[in-house]
Amino acid sequence: MHFDAQEINKFNDLAHQWWNLDGEFKTLHHINPVRLKFVTDNIVLDNKLVIDVGCGGGIFAESMAQKRAIVTGIDLAPKSIEMAKLHLFESGQNVEYECVDIESFAKSHTEYFDVLTCMEMLEHVPNPEIIIENCSRLLKPGAMAFFSTINRNPKSYALGVLAAEYILNLIPKGTHEYKKFIKPSELRSLLSKHGFDVFAIKGIEYNPITEAVKLSNNVDINYMIACHKSI
After folding, report:
1. Which residues contact residue 44 at a Cβ distance below 8 angstroms, ignoring those fewer than 6 apart?
2. Whose CA is closest to 128, among 159, 152, 111?
3. Residue 54: which of 87, 18, 30, 16 has the closest Cα?
4. Does residue 31 contact residue 97 with C-beta atoms inside 8 Å?
């Protein structure tokens, strides 16, 4: 099984918070412009067919739609998808959302998309390799993919779990399981195995006091990877 029912329930319970800028997902709103910059620094999204895997309430999907991408978002939490759809009435953006697992979706959309994004999702699934394998199936040869996740080391545990969840209350308690964090070398290996060539990696540095966010070469905690699907 490539999904965790407990994880889905967790995000279902928080679904009403997705678009509350001061709520449980405020940190995602803070880092979203930097995530988008990493993508747009590497590809022009205008008129590209984009799939956002694990789209949640649509924060990143909508930001790509603002760049004139033709975006589809998929997620397994039905209440998150419901909130994503509802927010379109408020934002006026055009995004297609489906509550579906990636394996089923990949069977009906093989080699369909120009760009794939998978943000803060791999650390929430039992088997990231199955997700990556199906991400590859979704993409046309030569297409681009962007992944973000959390490194696994003592620093990421101290700051990404203990500080973020239990001291600073940046994210809900129990959001992350340290054992599911993924080292860049591990992610690179999985991507290579399934036909991706990594060409860029950047860290995301976040100051919880000033709420300042920037891309950096420090990948100790949060990091993003850009890659091509081999032709």
Report:
1. none
2. 152
3. 18
4. no
**Could you give the CA distance from residue 227 to residue 35 in angstroms, rounded to a whole number?**
15
pLDDT, greater one: 162 or 44: 44
DSSP category for residue 230: P
Per-residue pLDDT tens for 46-75?
999 999 999 999 999 999 999 999 999 999
Q: What's the chain's average pLDDT?
A: 90
DSSP 3-state assignment of 11?
Answer: helix
The kind and range of the H/E element at 78 are helix 78-91
Letter for the amino acid at 122? L
- How far, in Å, CA of 47 to CA of 207, rounded? 34
Please report, rounded to a whole number, the percentage of residues in the chain having pLDDT higher than 70.
86
- Alpha carbons within 13 angstroms on the beta-carbon side of residue 34 total 20
pLDDT at 22: 87
pLDDT in tens, 94-109: 999 999 999 999 999 9
Residues contacting 138, CB < 8 A, separation 6+: 51, 53, 102, 105, 106, 109, 110, 111, 112, 113, 116
CA distances from 30 to 19, 71, 180 (A): 12, 21, 23
